[in-house]
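Q: I'm building a small set of examples for a reading group on sequence design. Run inverse folding on the following structure and report the sequence directly after it, with nothing in between.
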């Protein structure tokens, strides 16, 4: 299990844009599983939406991308680098994510060629799918 400080040793994101709280497991270049504890005090709930707070889908996608980055950037040859979005494909949102939810984030790296790759991600809350999709990334 990695805590936030250990996560920051692998990926460059910082608060308020660090979107994962702990990493349950990871295999460099293959997969990662992490958690985001969704708190009412998150910066985005002030405007999304007042009186009906819902985690924006784009931030769920970012949480999945950061989880995948744990796997990719923990590879020895990628340490100190960054993973950028190259594209998002087949992204579906199935369930609202709200304050108090513990979002489980799982990403498998399904293809890599040089600095480019594809990760397949799924976000769940209590075993129910909240979002899933594929992410193309570039390591720079």
């Amino acid at each position: 299990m990695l805590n936030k400080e250990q996560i920051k040793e692998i990926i460059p994101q910082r608060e308020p844009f660090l979107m994962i709280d702990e990493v349950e497991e990871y295999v460099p270049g293959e997969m990662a599983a992490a958690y985001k504890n969704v708190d009412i005090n998150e910066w985005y709930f002030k405007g999304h939406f007042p009186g009906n707070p819902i985690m924006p889908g784009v931030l769920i996608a970012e949480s999945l991308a950061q989880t995948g980055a744990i796997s990719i950037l923990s590879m020895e040859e990628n340490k100190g680098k960054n993973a950028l979005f190259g594209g998002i494909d087949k992204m579906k949102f199935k369930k609202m994510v709200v304050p108090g939810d513990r979002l489980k984030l799982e990403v498998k790296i399904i293809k890599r060629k040089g600095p480019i790759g594809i990760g397949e991600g799924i976000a769940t809350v209590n075993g129910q799918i909240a979002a899933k999709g594929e992410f193309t990334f570039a390591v720079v």
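Residues 22 and 75 are 18 Å apart (CA to CA).
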